[in-house]
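Long-time lurker. I teach an intro course on protein structure, and each term I like to show students one example going from raw sequence to a predicted 3D structure in token notation. This year I'd like something fresh instead of my usual example. Would anyone be willing to generate the tokens for the chain below so I can use it in lecture? Attribution to the forum is fine with me.
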Amino acid sequence: MVLARLTEAQKKLFIRQHYGLAGNHSAVKLCGWTKNSLHNRGVCYKQKFYGIESHRCLQCTPVINWCTQNCDFCWRLGRYQNPELEGWDEPKFIVDEMIKAQRKLLSGFPGADVNMKKWEEAQNPTQVAISLAGEPTIYPRLGELIAEFHRRGMTTFLVTNGTLPERLEKLNPLPTQLYVTLAAPDKETCLNLCHPNFSDGWERLMKTLELLPKLNTRKVIRLTLVKGINMKNPEKYAELIKKAKPDFVEAKGYMSVGSARKRLGLEYMPTHEEIVEFANEISKHLGMPVVDEHKPSRVVLLSNLPEEKRKVTN
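-- Reply from a regular --
Happy to contribute to a lecture. Here you go:
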């Protein structure tokens, strides 16, 4: 067994990359859209699509340095393994430390071009994106962590790669909105692009897609689309999405940033127009209309829900 602890070298690296560490294995980081919102320079697609407030969003992870895949398109460090971990922090402690870390990261912002009303509101986040790094379902007390966020009046968006369906099946409570990343229309593409650490990584993802209709929460299938690699066979994507019966599908373009730049350069980034075109092809096969888009993020939303029901409420 390995303790769920960062080494001193890892801590220094993450701090240098502007992460705020929260306990022994968790972290937060200010999203670029949180910063933009504080400067009145626009809001993220999650605010546009779902009504959450960008400046009051806490982007975090309970497992900053562990994941079950090594996706080529991931902007995080990569080189993840699946060790048996023990010695996890308490959920309440993690939440307390995350909020402290977020406030510390925000402390240098007040200035002439910052919306101070938003900055003051940002000290008390109302939305949590559990999506920063690693695979959050590795944390064995994830349900308790979500419950602690909910107890404090926060909504939660959880993003998973779907390789641990047994954790999702037992997750209680469920997040406000559950994202499952679908980054390939077939097994071969998945193995070559996502490099799961399980020999049955694709089969595990299929189990998660089949599980989703049974989970009583808002569900999103996230397509991370890489030009020339997985932007193909829209009819196969549609077949897989039909298994999951999600409320939403987000078709989002790959961005060549962070560590991903070493693996996939700018030529792999689709334009927003290409994302729109591919989303429309999926829509035809899926029977789910395109209802919104956010050009700066190169993302298109599909849903059968009317606009008023797309918005998140506590």
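Some talking points for your students: The first helix runs from residue 8 to 16. Residues 25 and 63 are 5 Å apart (CA to CA).
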